Amino acid sequence: MHQKIAKALENTNRGFLSDVDAMFSRAAELVPMQEGLAEKIRICNETYVTRFGVRLRGRMYTFEGWRSVHTNHPSPAKGGIRYAPNVDQHEVEALAALMTYKCALMDLPFAGSKGALKINVSDWTEAELERITRRFTQELVRQNFLSPALNVPAPDVGTSEQTMVWIGNEYQRMNPHDINAAGCVTGKPIAAGGIEGRVEATGRGVQYAVRVFFQTERDRRKARVPSTLDQCRVVVQGFGNVGYHAAKFLAEDGCRITTIIERDGAITNADGLDIEALKEHVRIHGGVAGFEGGTFGNDGEAALEKECEILIPAALESVINEDNARRIKAAVIAEAANGPVTYEANEILRERGVVIIPDLFANAGGVTVSYFEWVKNLTHMPFGLMERRQREHEHLELVTALEGALGVKLAQGNFGRLQLGASEIDLVRSGLEEKMHSTYRRMSDLWNSDSKISDLRTAAYVIAINRLKAIYQAIGI
Ligand code: NAD
Question: Whose CA is nearest to atom 28 of ligand 1?
Answer without folding.
Answer: 315
